[in-house]
Amino acid sequence: MTPYPGGQVSGQLTLGDLALPSAPNPLFASTSADLALDSALWGQPVVFDNHFQVHADELTEVPLPENGGVTDDGKTITMHLRPDLRWSDNQPIQAADFRFWWRLNQDPQTGAILRSGYDQIDSIETPDALTMVLHMKRPFGPYLFYLPLAAPEHAWGHLRPIDLQNIVSIYQAPQVTSGPYQVERFEPGKRYVLTPNHAYHSTLFHGPYLAGITYQVYPSVQTLSQSVRQGTLTIAQGYQEPDLPLLRGLPGRVQQVSVPTASYAHLDLNLDHPLLQDLRVRQALQAAIDVCGLLHDVLKDSSCQRRVNQVEPSPSLYYDAALPTAKYNPALARRLLAQAGWKTNRTGILEKNSQPFMLRLVTTSQDPVRLAVAQVLERDLRAIGIQLTIITYDLNSFFGLSTRGGVLATGKFDLALFTYFNGPEPDEAYSVFHSSQVPGEQQPGGSNYGRVRDAQLDQALEQGRSLVAFSARHEAYQRFLARLNAQVYMLPLYCELNLLTVDAHLHNIFPDANPSLNTWNIADWWLSS
Question: Mind listing the pLDDT tens digit for each residue in 424-439?
């Protein structure tokens, strides 16, 4: 962090984005824009930084087994509040406010977006105004990600939970908040104007340092980049890789910032397809794809630095640097396929029992980079005798639930090219790889699109959920990653980029590995003259 030089809050910052928050309230936040504004408006018990390290924010310390904050084998978690926390209306933030938030979150009438995870809390005691004791239903590994937040019981307590979404001053432009800034003005469809919350305190952050923040929405990336060139934006986000040509030749006062994300573009393999159930075939596909050549040709990455070889890429604390990276080896691919009984016919296509080796690759439409990647994959596989057909779908059709005929959820593919974005909590892998999460009638929202069913993976993921000590969880996820890598259930390819433009006078910008959280430390942003 660059220390603030002192003095009064000063400087007006304008943040440009392509989407305006629809519900900047942690109970209802669901979009990247919601999360971006949440960091300005709301404090949190703990906060994860851009390296996925956890820090105390509203708490005096992070509750861990090592410091006595987690006891009873993980079933009791004690949270100690800072004594100087206050709401933006200067009322004290107390332990009861955190219990109030949790009760709202778990009440179906509230309509909270994310209830899972918080439902692992059985009850909350508040022995005094600064202490919360969470009694868990069972030891729950991801507990730090699901510590309850605070809601202003003194301001909302008289309302019915079902009414919260119908009140603009709570749902769209919350007036009683706990973060470094507060809403001064909300112009629907256009902007939020924020002013400092002088009642704000934090264990990690020291601001607010800015006199005002305007969160401004733009209708297109063209108008966004034009405003950057005109000098009307201090920071802008929402760019995608196809937008990079718009960022060439920026004025000297503007810096283009590019940070690898904790994401992995990858190929899902549909393991319900009999052909792909043969490990030798999956290994052959892996050996046949020239990932570094793909990065060079499509993404202009001549160093191959963006290559990803696992589903917990850096900066995940569970990243396994010892996992081998598959080498491009088409000769090995051919040998493996021959061992599996595939022979080349006179047209150059592999055959087995008179059936040609043909695969359908599905991906999203209106993404020129992803389509170009798919075409390189088609070329690489054709070189070893596999015929690939590329089919594109709109986002709703591609990611739709199984009950709505979603392509991934119903398994209407052989290979699927898309991206997963990771956060600090590896339990996200449970919904993607645990056998109970295969989409279907019993699990319409499951995300195990590859139809992975592996008892060893299940056991490791379940242990990662039920163990609370970092060392024990780390060991479980290392076993998960090793098994996933050895069985080639998925082909990780490369990480996405988090792209921003930033005025050179803005300090303490540390873009996050999750592009939705670039404002994670907005409390400490400041402008020099």
Answer: 999 999 999 999 999 9
pLDDT of residue 445: 83
Alpha-helical segments (H) within 357-468: 368-382, 395-399, 407-410, 428-433, 455-466
The tokens of 129 are what? Answer: 């105004």
φ, ψ (nearest 5 deg) of residue 81: -80, 150
Contacts of residue 124, defined as CB under 8 A and 6 or more positions apart, other chains included, come to 98, 99, 102, 132, 133, 134, 135, 148
415-421 sheet: strands from edge to edge: 387-393, 358-364, 415-421, 263-269, 490-494
Strand pairing category for 70-71 and 263-269: unpaired
* Element housing 124 (H / E): strand 121-128
Residues with Cβ within 8 Å of residue 77, at least 6 apart in sequence: 63, 69, 70, 133, 134, 136, 143, 147
Give the tokens for residue 142: 């991801």
What 3 state SS string does 494-511 have? ECCEEEEEEECCEECCCC
Q: Which two tokens stand for residue 457?
A: 């993976």
Contact 485, 141 (CB under 8 A): no
Vertex 416 angle, CA 413 and 417, to 5°: 155
287-296, 346-355, 520-529: least confident range: 346-355
pTM for the structure as a whole: 0.92
CA 304, 310, 312, 317 dihedral sign is negative
Q: Report CA 353 to chain centroid distance, whole Å.
A: 44
Q: Provide mean pLDDT across the span 7-34.
A: 93
Integer Rg of the chain from CA? 25
* β-sheet bridge partners, residue 266: 418, 492
